[in-house]
Specification:
The chain is mostly helical and about 375 residues long. It is about 65% helix and about 0% strand. It has 15 helices and two strands. It is globular. About 45% of the residues are buried.
Length: about 375
Amino acid sequence: MFIFKNANEGNISYIRKLLFFHWPLAILILATGAFGILMLYSVAGGSMLPWAEPQLIRFIVGFGAMIIIGFIHIDFWRSLTIPAYIGSILLLIAVMFYGEGAGAQRWIDLKIIRLQPSEIMKVTLIMALALYYSLIPISRKSSPLWLIPPLALIFLPTFLVFSQPDLGTSLLILISGFAVMFLAGVNIWYFIAGAFAGIGLVSAVFLSRNTSWQLLTDYQMGRIDVYLNPSLDPLGAGYHITQSKIALGSGGLSGRGFMQGTQSQLDFLPEKHTDFIFTTLAEEFGYFGSLGLLIIYALMIIFCLLSAAKNQYNFGALLTSGLAVMFFLYFFINMAMVMGLAPVVGVPLPLISWGGSAMLVLLGAFGLIQSAHVHQPRG
């Protein structure tokens, strides 16, 4: 875990900011985004439309925003933490009444973009927790009374997102929040107790089935059933994961070649441009291509954690490490999902999958990481 002291920094010139900018991380983000556009071009049968061209435009806008955010002092973003968190909560409430989506109320149609408030919530929650733990003394971080505010900050958006119902994103928010608490120095025994509570909750989910107090919707329970045994409904709910496993296996070590995948090109693979795009990648580029993407992701996380470890400014360090954990959960859950190691929960592959809100918010999060890195105290 990280233990930091508070520190402030005076203004630095734009030239020095350019020098301090984390260019290796930016280059990896560029490479991943370019690879994602290449995959969207492939799944469209060799066309920039309907996915690759809009994704390219969004990526250029998001990458530019990342640079601008990185150049603005981290204290400015720190000052926006509380209104950003409150605004995200209000958007989550609004999506319950005005939201739309496939099987769940997840988006608000703003005409120019369909906004997914839960994506924004992932970042603003980490900002709020980083602010809270940067303000309280180390001696109070594990005090039961002082655990109430961060738990409230975590459980409120988790409940709102779960109610949409969006199980995958609610789990991502919950785990990200607990990760920030752990990194802030909260006693590990709380997390051990929480793990046992989680086991009890999972048991309660199964015991509640077909009762008046069933905890999950039939739609969500069906996804768990298919995860445990896809053959229960091979042409229905189990079709996604069955075709995904076929695509993963057919790629072999070196893959079938760019745009040569049978599962994606012949439309056997559902959601090939969003949640299941990793299977398209694995089929066309094989084990080596998949491993290459994993290495890029791992390097991005390592760069973020090294930056956090060197940062003596509490807020910036916790924000960076928390966002790094969030990024890890993104691709870990997605890859586990498409390989049949986790239920299908609708979590996109970061910077690769088609999507507006997810990509723009993630690039904004990397902008915050850059801001913390550029403006960290230096001797």
